[in-house]
Amino acid sequence: MTSLALFFVGSVYLLNGLSFLGLIDAKASAPLNILIGGILLAVTAAIVKSGGPAGVEQASLAEAAGFLLFALAFVYTGIGGLWPSTQQGVGWYCAWAAAVSACLSGWHIIHDANAKSSILWAVWTVVFVGLFLVIVVPIDRLRKPMGWFLIAAGFTTCFVPGGLGVLGIWSTTSDVVVLAIEVAAIGFLAALAFFGGGSSRRVLASQR
Which residues are CB-contacts of 1 (< 8 A; sequence separation ≥ 6)? Predict the structure, then answer.
């Protein structure tokens, strides 16, 4: 994803994390989800269209897939915030999105030789898996840890990389440093889940 896009994705992570923690209502975060999702859909269309009659290059196609994955996730989440009956669908979409994210993580490291992007997609895979477990299974004790993890991931995988990209220094940032930060973020989630995130209501019930 582009640096500018990461900034906006980070804001959605923040609001959705606050919603999971019960600090704001899901309806309050719905407009931003739908707005940013719509913008990402437009970006996806622009990337595909830029390929022209000859088609889209593999790297651009992978980038478009990433934009589309998050665009649909945000639009669907926004709809779920407005109409709670769709929440189960959001959860199952997250399962599919986790599989796609894992594939994109592998693609970036194998074909693109981009370790930092691979690491970010690996973290987003964990995000989608966690959302699936909370919404569909549901594992209620993971709800609050996932809220904090969404906020943390919003900063470590979106705000910081996006900011460094805008400043032109993301490409020179050490892969080891990025890996260490993201491992710490996942460790943060694991610690919260292990030591207990407190009892939480089911997603559907919390929206009624």
Answer: 9, 63, 66, 67, 70
Its domain, for residue 108, covers 3-206
CB 135 within 8 A of CB 20: no
Number of domains the chain is built from:
1
- The amino acid that residue 108 corresponds to is H
**Overall average pLDDT of the 27-47 stretch:** 91
Q: What is the CATH number of the domain that holds 139?
A: 1.25.40.600
Helix (H, G, I), strand (E, B) or coil at 196: coil
Peptide bond into 138 cis (omega under 30): yes
pLDDT at residue 53, as a whole number? 43
Is the pLDDT assigned to residue 203 strictly greater than 50?
no
For the whole model, what pTM was predicted? 0.86
DSSP alpha helices (H): ranges in 50-174? 58-82, 87-110, 115-135, 143-153, 160-166
What count of Cα atoms within 13 Å lies in the side-chain half-sphere of residue 128?
A: 23
pLDDT at 51: 61
